């Protein structure tokens, strides 16, 4: 006998369940990143998908390229850099000129334009993620960024055109708040005017996911795109491909 596939749709106040015959053998799936109690509330509005950006959608050059730019190990870089300068930059409290001045604790001069060029070269879509975003867009899902990042998100947009798939709606440098602060998540709900249980929050950092769950969101920790597709299906985000 063929197995059955359940497809849940969220474009109606009444759930529509399509049962399709499938003759492929059932696949074992690891849903360890999603507690079983998590599920989307059915509503007239489709689930809203909120994506972290760095190391969830886009490769983060800080952990791959910046050490080489400065000629340091990661340990040396973390010991020498100012402990809060980047956080202040992410929250929009300082501009890039001030970041360049205080990037290191000893305020040594840095090549700010060179650093920006290094970051620009390093930005790329994580393997398989752009294809997922294409499929989600084709299926009509509402998607927004929910990211801790400075004004340099504009460089990412210029290079990768992420706005083809989602809006840069929630960015720490504009909000003045960072994950995992509870107010970050509250502001999302206030602006979208949606119940938290209708929001799926995706982030590579478990602390940010746990904070989202505490705020009532459905949370998924990103590990790779194949697991993310399975995890999205697990919480009811169906991706139909033609």
TrEMBL record:
UniProt cross-references to SUPFAM superfamilies, sorted A to Z: HAD-like
Entry-linked InterPro entries: HAD-like_sf (IPR036412), HAD-SF_hydro_IA (IPR006439), HAD_sf (IPR023214)
UniProt-listed Gene3D superfamilies: HAD superfamily/HAD-like
Cellular component GO terms, alphabetical: chloroplast
Name of one Pfam family that matches: Hydrolase
Entry GO MF terms: FMN hydrolase activity
Protein's name in the database: FCP1 homology domain-containing protein
Organism: Erythranthe guttata (Yellow monkey flower)
């Amino acid at each position: 006998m063929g197995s059955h596939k359940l497809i849940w749709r969220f474009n109606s106040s009444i759930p529509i369940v399509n049962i399709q015959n499938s003759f492929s053998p059932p696949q074992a799936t690891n849903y360890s990143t999603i507690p079983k109690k998590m599920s989307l509330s059915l509503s007239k509005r489709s689930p809203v998908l909120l994506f972290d950006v760095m190391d969830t959608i886009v490769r983060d050059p800080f952990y791959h390229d910046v050490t080489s730019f400065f000629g340091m190990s990661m340990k040396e870089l973390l010991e020498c850099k100012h402990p809060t300068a980047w956080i202040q930059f992410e929250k929009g409290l300082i501009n890039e000129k001030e970041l360049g001045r205080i990037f290191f604790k000893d305020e040594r001069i840095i090549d700010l334009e060179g650093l920006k060029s290094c970051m620009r070269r390093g930005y790329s879509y994580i393997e398989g993620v752009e294809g997922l975003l294409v499929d989600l867009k084709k299926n009509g899902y509402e998607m927004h960024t929910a990211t801790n990042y400075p004004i340099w998100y504009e460089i990412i947009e210029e290079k990768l055109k992420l706005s083809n798939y989602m809006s840069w709606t929630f960015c720490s440098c504009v909000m003045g708040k960072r994950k995992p602060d509870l107010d970050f998540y509250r502001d999302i709900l206030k602006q979208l005017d949606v119940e938290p249980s209708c929001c799926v929050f995706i982030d590579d950092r478990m602390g940010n996911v746990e904070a989202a769950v505490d705020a009532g969101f459905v949370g998924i920790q990103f590990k790779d795109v194949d697991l993310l597709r399975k995890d999205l299906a697990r919480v009811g985000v169906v991706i139909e491909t033609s």
